[in-house]
Design brief:
The protein has about 70 residues and is mainly alpha-helical. The protein is built from two helices and no strands. The longest helix is centred in the middle third of the chain and has 40 residues. It is elongated. The termini are far apart.
Length: about 70
């Protein structure tokens, strides 16, 4: 059993997919892929908006990114 086959087997046993029919397994995997696509797509959009809205203007203005802590003693 090669490395990829072992990882697929471990995935099937860990998630409990080994007891499903082939079409149920495919449906579950498709749902997982759609969920992962949704998370990564929206994460990349959020990261792009954060970069364009906060980091890029500071870089163009030459400001520092250091976190300033106001410690009151």
């Amino acid at each position: 059993m090669n490395w990829i086959a072992r990882k697929i087997h471990l995935y099937n046993v860990t998630i409990g997919l080994y007891m499903l029919d082939w079409w149920e397994r495919y449906l579950f995997n498709i749902l997982i892929l759609v969920l992962l696509w949704f998370v990564f797509y929206n994460g990349s959009r959020s990261a792009t908006e954060f970069y364009n809205g906060y980091i890029k203007p500071k870089m163009l203005a030459g400001q520092s990114f250091a976190v300033e802590e106001n410690i009151i003693m």
